[in-house]
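In the design runs reported in the main text, the only information available to the sequence generator was the tokenized backbone. The following block is the verbatim input for one such run; it is reproduced so that readers can re-run the procedure and compare outputs position by position.
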């Protein structure tokens, strides 16, 4: 086998392990070496190389016995929002800097049971609040891609799951978990040139995931191709009695329909997603994606999602409101950082003042305001009503189409520091991902092309509720037609 181990897909790696072309220890060592070589990207908050090597040896023993599990020996990055038993879990916050959970989240447990090996806890925006992975207490994540026009600039990896996306894009892990509240798997996937998926709300258990906005949070995955992402999503899905919002639905084999043809499939193109000021490259990639799907047999349908313009403001009432309530638990008494004050009130204040970063504080204040007695109906209740209208838009559109095709983000990766002082601009970066989140729909970002700086741009496919299969099938057809083969220049010589 001539391909470097870090550039294999998960499917290829599983085949190579089974056929004993290489061992799980060799596969792991290649990824750990890449992790060292890419240390400057700051993709991990906590690295666990010693455990990873030990588990890789155990995987080899299983393989030798013919006892291979579905994802045996696959090097994996775990977003540091998933509680991992005995391994520090920080949510990228000072307030949880030394928090070591006594339990394992359902999703990470499912991945461990399937045989993945965690190489470390991936960096993220603090409590997953952000779109560029620049609000982490542990510093920003750098995108492995470089702009051809401004090669000196360090670019963001997207957020909030920027560490997970950078780790997969740079060959430090073959797959990773993300969480997606308003776009955090799809948008970093787009910025890093990999696949990012968010399932239908309720498809995966939220148990053991540190909560941000509970009615929106969903676990998701990253991989370097659609098939791998379908395999990973299948692994983490399913009902969990420990999470009352996880659904009692059978989990289909998401990989089963992938290779079916898409003849007659109706692809909706929402006119409201043609926002002002969108770069021409983004428009071109979108048009090209639609054309390629059409050539593959799909039918393009113009649709309308009339309440799209209200999605971002609605999200920025609902998400901070739920966050302000969820984050009330960090009081310096039960767990996490504790800063002494002269009385209990002052202890709360000092702990939370020292423990939370600026973006988290901003959202707690917005959320507390929106939930306060005088404003609850004007803001929170109103936002919930608009959320319903947005969900109804999708339901009506799906009478005319089977999936929806949009750009994932209105731009490619920007420089670290570029939008830091403008939260509104940052919030608008999620204009294409947030509507599906509010409606609870599944979405996937597929790498679809490069812009004039040689940076990746993703296309998003939004599916109907519980119809991830059609979403994956469309994504696979798009991936085949686009044949996106470029990797970040930083690691090109190691990667191809
Ligand atoms: N960027 C969005 C936010 O800041 C979404 C983040 C997410 O999905 N976790 O809230």
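Verbatim output:
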């Amino acid at each position: 086998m001539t391909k470097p181990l870090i550039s294999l897909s998960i499917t290829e790696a599983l085949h190579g392990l089974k056929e004993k072309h290489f061992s799980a220890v060799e596969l792991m060592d290649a990824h750990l070496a890449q992790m060292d070589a890419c240390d400057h990207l700051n993709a991990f908050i906590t690295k666990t190389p010693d455990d990873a090597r030990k588990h890789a040896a155990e995987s080899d023993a299983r393989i030798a016995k013919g006892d291979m599990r579905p994802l045996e020996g696959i090097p994996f990055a775990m977003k540091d929002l998933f509680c991992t038993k005995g391994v520090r879990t920080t949510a990228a916050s000072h307030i949880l800097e030394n928090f070591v959970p006594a339990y394992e989240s359902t999703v990470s447990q499912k991945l461990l049971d399937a045989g993945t090996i965690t190489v470390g806890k991936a960096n993220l925006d603090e409590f997953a609040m952000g779109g560029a992975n620049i609000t982490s207490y542990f510093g920003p994540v750098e995108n492995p891609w470089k702009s051809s026009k401004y090669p000196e600039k360090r670019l963001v990896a997207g957020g909030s799951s920027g560490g997970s996306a950078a780790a997969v894009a740079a060959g430090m892990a073959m797959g990773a978990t993300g969480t997606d509240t308003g776009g955090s798997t799809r948008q970093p996937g787009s910025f890093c040139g990999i696949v990012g998926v968010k399932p239908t709300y309720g498809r995966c258990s939220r148990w053991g995931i540190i909560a941000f906005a509970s009615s929106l949070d969903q676990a998701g995955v990253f991989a370097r191709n659609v098939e791998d992402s379908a395999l990973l999503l299948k692994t983490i899905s399913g009902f969990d009695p420990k999470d009352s919002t996880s659904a009692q639905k059978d989990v289909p084999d998401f990989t089963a329909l992938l290779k079916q043809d898409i003849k007659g499939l109706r692809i909706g193109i929402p006119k409201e997603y043609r926002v002002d000021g969108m770069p021409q490259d983004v428009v071109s990639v979108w048009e090209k994606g639609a054309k390629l799907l059409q050539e593959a047999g799909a039918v393009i349908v113009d649709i309308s999602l009339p309440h799209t313009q209200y999605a971002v403001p609605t999200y920025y009432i609902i998400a901070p409101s739920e966050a302000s309530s969820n984050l009330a638990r960090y009081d310096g008494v039960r767990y996490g950082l504790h800063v002494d004050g002269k009385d209990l009130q002052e202890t709360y204040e000092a702990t939370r003042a020292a423990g939370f970063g600026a973006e988290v504080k901003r959202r707690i204040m917005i959320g507390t305001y929106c939930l306060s007695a005088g404003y609850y109906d004007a803001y929170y209740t109103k936002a919930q009503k608009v959320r319903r209208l947005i969900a109804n838009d999708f339901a009506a559109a799906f009478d005319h189409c089977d999936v929806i095709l949009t750009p994932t983000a209105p731009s490619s990766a920007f420089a670290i520091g570029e939008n830091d002082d403008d939260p509104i601009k940052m919030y608008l970066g999620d204009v294409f991902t947030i509507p599906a989140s509010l409606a609870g729909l599944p979405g996937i970002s597929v790498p679809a092309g490069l812009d004039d700086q040689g940076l990746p741009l993703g296309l998003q496919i939004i599916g109907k509720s519980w119809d991830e299969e059609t979403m994956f099938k469309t994504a696979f057809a798009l991936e085949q037609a686009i044949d996106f083969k470029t990797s970040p220049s930083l690691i090109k010589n190691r990667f191809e």
